[in-house]
Amino acid sequence: MGTFFRRDEKTATVETTKGKVQGYILNDICVFKGIPYARARRFHAPEPVEGWTDVFDACSFGFVCPLFSLPRPNGELYVPHRYWPMDEDCLNLNLWTPGCDDKKRPVMVWLHGGGYESGSAIEHIAYEGENMSRYGDVVTVTVNHRLNILGYLDLSDFGDEYVNSGNAGGDDIIAALKWVRDNVERFGGDPENVTVFGQSGGGGKVTTLLQSPDADGLYAKAICMSGVWEQKPPVGEEGGKALVQSLMKELSVKRAGELETVPYSRLAAAYEKIRPAFIRENRYVGNQPFKNAFYAGDPLIYGFRRETEQIPVLAGSVFGEFSSFAPGNAERKTAGDEEQLRLAEAFFGKEHAAALAPLFREAYPEHPLCDLVRLDHLFRPATQKYIRLRSARNACTWSYLFDHEMPIDGGTTPWHCADIPYVFHNTQFVPSTQEEGVEKLEKLIFDSVMAFARTGDPGHPGLPSWPASTPELEQTMIFDDRPFLHTNHDRELMPLFEAYMKPIFDANREQITEKAQH
């Protein structure tokens, strides 16, 4: 490395469309933090920020979106976090680049997880973009936007000014992509080669962009990590009228417009009080994108938009996801075959275990049978369906599964978020990734992400041949120390597994998710 740190009047200063911003150089990477890309009144569409004449100090992260409750610090071995001041003035982004020059590098725009309700662009320390920019020679951007009822509450029945309040958070992301289009070339990036990528809720936001007409032309490729799950539309596909009226009643306000000025803490408390009843009746509760003229809806329910069918998509999940926190990890190393079968029978019942066991052994021969109780049922079946339906419309849909045994508690299946540090080339920040050979797996995964960003094909010389998937053949790259390609390996297993696992998981959701330390 050359320059370790530098900041002076000539360093990392860029003229954007709104004025100059100044960051700093750290380990030869130019860093810019907290750049405002838009502004917005509560429940309204984002608007352009006013320009500035002084140089904007882009050396500190900006506010993150307010959450319903303060996060409880825990699980730092699994997913090291960063907690940050919250404010509704949160429409800002962070950018890392190897140089503010004319090289036109690929641009990676990260959409954070936390569903559509929580999280932030800097919540995970593994979201840091420095290493991705350095080792990939790309421009890395992470985006803060409105969440929960600030970003996803439909008030369209209460006036045209709220026409797309149900997707305000998505509109923020689109505004950030427009900022990238208009400015990233000055930071050494190529506005014609933008890859949107995200995990969990961030992966959901990626699929949401594909279904949002106003985002067309603002990105070229998409990566969806553990971001596809089965949803059902609310009863009668209703909008937010009843929910908003209940919220107004709870807060003793007479006009929807008054909700714009209610202190956020009161607004959030009132919403959390009335939400459970709406959930029980499968009524509209907000907190996720709203199907309307601006958003075509979940593609698994409403189909894919023709306009984005040819966007290359890399989609996948993690073997264990939340189920990695199910009981029984110790038995993975100590129990014999018969004892492991008994464990599966105790979990699923004898009849269901007998049906699942041979299918699991065929699909995952490298796993002990007791890992059957730790297999994910939330994301993998939905991702399979997504890949099957999308690949019928193109030849650029790719499938992967992260299935690396993690070095914690004597070895365990990978959990939700376990793949993020490998994607960002940031395993150095996560204690539970530290093991012999971590650099090899990190490079294999990172090189796939970079290959995809450059060409739309995630294959590279370090991997076996990796064809795109088709409806008949899901070609899944299994990422482990020795990656290998599986074709339709769990297609027969997953429908049956999902049917048997879902009621068990739902009945024990609170205990399992409490152990999901992230």
Q: Over all CA atoms, what is the radius of gyration?
A: 23 Å
Q: What does the main sheet amount to?
A: 12 strands, mixed
Strand order of the largest sheet: 1-4-5-7-9-8-10-11-12-13-14-15
Q: Please give the share of residues in helix.
A: 25-40%
List keywords for this structure.
518 residues; single chain; 15 helices; 12-stranded mixed beta sheet; alpha/beta; 3-stranded mixed beta sheet
Would you give an account of this structure?
The chain has 518 residues and is α/β, with parallel strands linked by helices. Helix content is 30%, strand content 15%. The chain is built from 15 helices and 15 strands. The strands form 2 sheets. A 12-stranded mixed β-sheet has the order 1-4-5-7-9-8-10-11-12-13-14-15, with helices on both faces. A 3-stranded mixed β-sheet has the order 2-3-6, with no helix packed on it. The longest helix has 18 residues, at 438-455. It is globular. It comes from Candidatus Eisenbergiella merdigallinarum.
Give the arrangement of secondary structure elements.
Layout: E1 5-6, E2 13-16, E3 19-22, E4 24-26, E5 29-36, E6 56-57, E7 92-97, E8 105-111, H1 130-136, E9 139-143, H2 148-151, H3 168-183, E10 189-199, H4 201-210, E11 221-225, H5 241-251, H6 264-280, H7 299-302, E12 313-318, H8 331-334, H9 337-348, H10 350-363, H11 380-391, E13 397-402, H12 420-423, H13 438-455, E14 475-479, E15 484-487, H14 493-507, H15 509-515
Parallel strand pairs: 3-6, 8-9, 8-10, 10-11, 11-12, 12-13, 13-14
Antiparallel strand pairs: 1-4, 2-3, 4-5, 5-7, 7-9, 14-15
